[in-house]
Amino acid sequence: MPITTGHTTIGLTASLVDGTSNSDFRLSIHNADNTAKVFLGGPGVTINNGLGLEKLTTMQFDMYASQELYAVSDKAGHIIHWMKQV
User: What is the CATH number of domain 3-85?
Assistant: First the structure.
């Protein structure tokens, strides 16, 4: 399984974390912020309808080909780390 890693800065509007893979993949998301949750979901994710990922925790998602994951925060400059296994 090839592995890629990176980080993404999230803000007040939904941002694409990852997607566009041609095959199924596992995506791990780590909320690197020590003060706030990050909210995960589809392109319309908000802080009111997203899946909350607590500060300094990690969650794994089994994704299908071409699925996309978006994130949003209630503050600017929120950093998340990700690891993708294809």
Answer: 2.60.120.770
- CB proximity list for 54: less than 8 A, separation 6 or greater: 31, 37
Q: How far, in Å, are 18, 66, 72 from residue 8 at the CA level?
A: 10, 19, 11
Query: Which residues partner with 51 through β-bridges?
Result: 40
CA separation for the pair 79, 59 (Å, rounded): 15
Query: Tokens 């950093």 identify what position?
Result: 79
pLDDT tens track for 31-76: 999 999 999 999 999 999 999 999 999 999 999 998 999 999 999 9
